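Exercise 7 asks you to align residues with tokens for two separate proteins.
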Amino acid sequence: MTPLPGLADLRRFADETRAMLQRQDIPETAEAQKRYADVVRLLRELHDRVEKPVTFGVVGEFTVGKSLLLGSLLGRPDLLPVEERKSTGNITVLRLRQAPTDPDGGASPDGGAATASGVTHAGPVAEVHYLSEEQLGSCVRSILDDLARGMDKEHAVLGAGHVLGGYDPFTDPRGWGPFDQWISCLWPQTGPEAAAPLVDPIQISATHVAAATELCRIRDAHLSQTGLLGTVRRIDSRLVRDALDHGTEERVPKSRPRPRIEPFGADQVETDKEALARSFMLIERVVFDVHVARDHWDLHRLLDEHPLQFLDFPGIGGAGSYGRDTHLSRSELAEVHTILVVLEARRPGRRGVEDFWGMLVQDQRTPEALAKAALVAANMFDKVLVPTLPDGALHRNDMLQRSDALNGIHVHADKFVKGRESAVVLTSSVSAIRRYGLPYADLSQKTRDEIEDALHKLDQGPQARWEETAVRFHEADPKGPWARRLREADGDGGVRALQLLVERQLRANGVAQKLERAEVSRGKLWQALLALQYQVRQDLCGAEPGAAEYDELNARMREYRLLLTALLTQLQDLRGLAGPAADGAPRAQPADAGAEEGRGALPSSVVGLVAPPGPASAADEVRREVYEWTEWPQLLRRARSDKKGLVTKSQNPDSLGRPRKPPPGQSAAPPVTHSSADDSRAYIDKFTALVTARLVKDREQLEEWLDGWQRAWSDAFAPLRAWFEEPATPPLLREAFLAHDGDPAAVESRMSVLWTALDPGFVVREQAERRGAGPVADEDLAARFPAQADHTLPWHHQVPDLDPMTESQERHPLLLAQLRQYVADAAASQVTSRLNRLLTARVDDLVDHYEEAARFLPAEDDMSPPRRPPAAPERGHGRDEGDGGEDGDDGDEGDGPEHHGGPGPGGSGGPDHPGGLGGQPIDELIRDWRHA
């Protein structure tokens, strides 16, 4: 199935899948029900990813001022709880709206109290989304598994893995009992009669004890609630804000937390602050509608284009919530389209944010895609000290080195944006409050005092305290980002720059990232549909492969054979480029190579692939480099200055006894030595250095070419890999191969070889690991130099004068030209021979691997279904009677070997062969969308 062109097609695919499920009979077997549940879950995921607004995630460690910055960005610093401790204990969703302009003030758009015009405000009602039973169970199992692994690694004697590994208090009939009993070892009894603990509590990591404490809080909330799980409650915004402030709960209790069951239900959490606070551990997310003042941030055009919401993630590392936050964040980060990474400007290298980044990488996102989706805010920049720079011109890097904060931002921000310097901004909420007069009255008294103290310090300093540094950066790097960043931070704390950056990012990448996320879900749903189709066929009819399936198999094997022929032909061409085999034997051609046919069958992804570095071009470049050595023109100048036109001999340094004056800036005159052009040692050193450097370069170019080669052929093999992964394919291949081989072990080996060959990346990586990364081993290069080692040349002053005839021969420029030619040829020969061996070894390995795959392919149309007695199909119990459950004619669409897409995994078949279910609703859906 090829990638769909847009969200509209994905929406239609989801709608048609939903309609199919209403009509499709699903067998009551456990496996079919599991496959059906997978399809329903992934269909819901695809629908959500298509319909949800573009989502902007805000991540960072606690106490980096993340919530205050987000409020300042929207025009209301006190929009969210802000403390010097972890205060955002849930994932907070801010659905953005543009506040209407009303010069007279009036009722809020939500019908709440009157609000002044031009002031950002939250709607009067928030949505509190509670975890479902399944989500809460998954969260608890994740924390228990992590706890068990950590404890077993450090204190295996406590048996955490035995008790907690695979344990689920939601399905275990003992409930929370095993957990309650086991945690007593973390808080053992004390006193003269208490038994000695297996492990001293002091030796147990506080992180493990904190995780157990968090599980206790989840336990209490779970056992206390009634009817809350999986629901959404609409609650007064101020009540939500006050109740869910994370508070100052102790990190590690000194004694074992006892069960604290205080029942509450939906009515209580909607009106009672304490009940809502006790339900904290059950909450998935809290959603506020935020109406942004137009005079602070004009969003109406952007919101018309892209409905937008911000996700403020809980800061990693604070007290009170650990594994739960990580689990929820990992789930929600999968839905984020653009990420704002908030670093503390003074200490940007803290590890918490990298934990978030790791979660994003785990969700099938490439580093390149993540870098394109990321922005970085180096926050609390008002606390960064201005560095003292020395007078005189400085390079940009020299100035960065003068400030740990600036250099840290430069280094650590690039980890996320990968060279996109325009995606980094320096921010300060305090500077934004001062510049725009933003309100912060709803913050705690402690936070208000801290903001006012910071404002006072800014007011006492220069108005633009970074201007002088910005000027120096501009002088050193006029096109660089640092002068602009520093001036933006001085102006309004970078808030306006961040707003513009968000707008550009959403317009450039927001919808593209949303489509990429939805496309990932579509791919998973497609695989689940193939698995369900196969299971339906197995359960409803006991379906066994028939003529249509074998037609499909033969068509796929024919496609595989053509690709292998093309690949082996290409490799044989590379063997010709590399020269004869290492043992001098003639190169064998692949069986049934069909070179011309293979060249014609080259897939489009491979046609434009350039050739690897060849020996001929390498030899030419090496000769050119030898000819450019400075010794040759130096010696020719000496010949041109000689009356006889011979290369003059160098002067003996010992004969220059006259005193010489040191040059300016030196304490002594440099010693007089002979020229490097006068003996063979200098040439040998340059010869060996040139050949070694060239071999390193050629090896790097070869590895680069192999990487491009494997990517091109991986694209060519992609349809076959997708077919191989379909649930019906492996059983079909095993049956067909077993009929020929009769040996199950040989069948598995055959399938493994064919599957491996479809992944050229794996083949190339395995080859590189086996060959190693070092240079090709060979004899001493110096011994290959075409002159005597450590030998003085005829124009050296130590060579005795000979008769005029001999002198004219030995020091003639023609001799110099011959030496240059000999050295160039010797260097070219060494590079060529070594590159030949390197290229030959890699190509031979690839040829051997793919010739083995070619031998394991069946002959043309050699696969045929075994004879079987006809079997009457059995109907399963469906969800609806539907009109798509009868076996019927599917128009024979895809029933031929020419239809490579096939009518489904292993073929949908038809009424003319056993197990035909070509008319099932799921068959129709897959047939319609296979080549969409």
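Second protein for Exercise 7:
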Amino acid sequence: MKTWLHSWRAAIRIARRDAWRSKGRSALVLAMIALPILGVSALDLTYRSSELSPAERVERSIGAADARLRDAQTGGVPILQDPTGEMSTPAKDPGKGTWPSGSTDVAEAVPAGSTVLTDGAGSAKMTTVHGLLMTEVRELKASDPVARGIMTLLDGRFPEKGDEVMATSHFLETSGLSVGSTLSARNFDRPYRIVGSYELPDSLDADQVNALPGAFLAPYGKAVEKAGLPAPDTSVSYLVRKPGGFTWNTVQQINTKGVTVVSRAVLLDPPAKAEVPLFQKGGYGDYESSAAADAADLAALGTVVGLAMLEICLLAGPAFAVGARRSRRQLGLVGANGGARSHIRAIVLSGGLVIGVAAAVTGTVLAVLLTLLLQPVLEDTMGQRFGAFDVRPAELLGIALLAVLTGLLAAIVPAVTASRQTVLASLTGRRGVRRSSRVLPLVGLAAVLVGGAIALFGSLVSRQFIIVAGGSAIAELGVVAMTPALVGLFGRTGRWLPLSPRLALRDAVRNRGRTAPAVAAVLAAVAGTVAVSTYMASSEAQNRADYVPLLPYGVASAFVPEEGGRDVPAVREAIQRAFPVDVSADVERISVGNPGCARWDEGPECGRYEVVVPRANECPLYAFAPDGGDPAEKYTPEQRRKMLSDDWRCKESASSGMYITDGGLLVGDAAVLRILGVDDPATVKALADGKVVVFNRSLVDKNGTLGIKQITDVTAAQKAADQNLPVPGKVGSLPAYLVPGDKQSYGLQALMTPATAKAAGLATVPMGVYVSTDRLPDSEQRQKLDGDIAKLGSAVEFHLEEGFVNRDSIILIALAVFAGLVTIGAAGIATGLAQADAEADLKTLAAVGAPPRVRRTLSGFQCGVVAAMGVILGSAAGLLPAVGLLLTQEREQLHYYEESLAQGWSGDATPPDLPIIVPWETLAGLLVAVPLGAALLAALVTRSRGAMARRAAT
């Protein structure tokens, strides 16, 4: 034991001295190992620091209160909730009856003797320097000790009067306002003075304004109603402090009054799952990941880490090999003085150990420093403040050990090779001739065959992606193992090459211990790039084939569903200023009740309408069932398939597409038809004659009319729907004209003129505008329009039809650049090591009269040869996983398609067809541009003349 320790101490000292002497090579290997360690350690520090403790989460949620009480909106009926208060449901299952809804008085559920602080929330369109901005409004007395921790004051002070507010820093930055500015809202002329700025630690990008309770939301709601618009929705929760806190039993008692509770005591010490009644109900649980999912995640993480370590070992291995070769005389002296082969291996392995430890320390220290330095940037990017700067020594130590292990693994093969050299060969500097292993290529070939068979099984028999990925990984490792033999096969092409490339190829083949790892590193990087590029190119081709345009090419639509379309004229003007508009068409929507109601408002003054589908036109699979059951269940799978393929009522209509309004009904003139490409003269005439132009056959009854049901009592309609009863409402019939053929109308189901709507007694409000353009707007015009619309503060639904746009092209470019950089880096490392190793040959060439350019061309071709071999092998190896994953995905889509037809879920009769597209542009760049670029770069950075010296005798 003592002898072993002393020998390793000496080996480490020798390795440390050699690393210090060869600073350039040591720094290169150290950087390769330290950079991944730096990234992973920084990621661990960021994740752990952003992961809040229960106490920190409680403080940011309820401040210093003991609990937050909130109305569950179940009409006061007893409820069940989870310990966090995020999930709740009525304690009694309503079954097929009416689901309980409505508000309750939360104040009655507050225990006696408690301290209460109200926390109100709403929204308003605030006036800013640039226009209007939809802003969250919060009414909370932030200066109260109970609210401490919810908001962090950055500048100024908390509001103290009714006309004072404070705003988040993000709101001030977005709005152009500052502390001391005056703030008001649309439809509300009362001014407020901004007296402070603050931030929400959990939502740094929130646009929020804080006022005292009752100072803003109530008067703002009255002003909005006075302007003829429905008051915005508001909610109030209660921050409560009570002696003894809120135990789980107290929470359950309050739940009986229809109130949810977020309790400090429960969050800090949650009850067991068996004590939570909500978790005992079907469909509810704590949603923890399963053991199988955790195992799959660990397997995926292990695979990524393993492949990264393999790539680093392949890149760093040649550096240790050349280092051992340069130290062969020193190693020979060790052997001549009685050192065993184990001592030689220990010295070379110690080089990997020294570099690994240095990389671990460097990467870890830099990760801590960079994370501390970039903490504000990371917090802004994540949108939340860190808790405490959480350093987990065990995790960082584990990550650092990966660096040490990587260094040792990279030095194993050079260590074994160096230990096999005889003492005489080491002292005289002779390299000797050693045949490459015949076992390793056979093992690699077996791995390729087994991995290919597994991937083929996964893609043609199973639908498990993990099987395909596992088989592909095994096959790729087999190709890596076969690399030395494959490099030898490349050497047979040298007889047809000129002098410099022939010498470069001969040198690469003779020094396979140096060439093969570099080629394998390039192979691994290129294989991954080709696999991902092939998969993404194939997915792009499928997405292009499946793409359904929402509008004709170059047509834009802008809809304003709120405030009765008040901002439609401003939106129209903004589009006409920014876009090259050819034809413009205003459209309106039918309004029931208060014109200021949005499409989905359910207030007492609001209503809605439905386009009636005649019973005879309903698809039997989706028809209304009085008992509330699924009508498709009474049919066999074969009958469902037949209905979806043969029954016109169940097929998808060409009029389907972008959602516009309920029933797809709009009010407009013939310009709408012209913009949407409907040029049938009969259709235009029917619209002018006062008929409703209908594109969906199922909406027209046997009498040739279209039915519209006006629903004025939304509450009664909801109760009827809950009880599976017909929705009450007044039905009116209008003469309709069915457009012949299955005409594409881009979501527009029916169109009538304003005169027709007025004659039928239908009230309308502005909805939006369609415009066609002379040419597709460029990016600058789009940005100008986006800025103008943002100033309005309205929820504008805008769409410009640009056709299919591939959003992933930048990823393909990034992958190609990444593979090119790895290829050039690996080839450059191999070239530099080859030059250092073949300096004697270069001096001999110069001595016998070779021109200076030979040194440059030889260096360039050495780099190009390594890059070309790696790229060729990687391109071939990368196609296997891509094809396997695509075939597996196609089987998965086909299975879902058959299931959807059998269950009656979809009327799409086209089976999926996932094409396999090889990205030839990416391959061409990798096969031609990357090796050529690597060769040129190596030639440019190589000196034409070396220092002349007498060649050492061998």
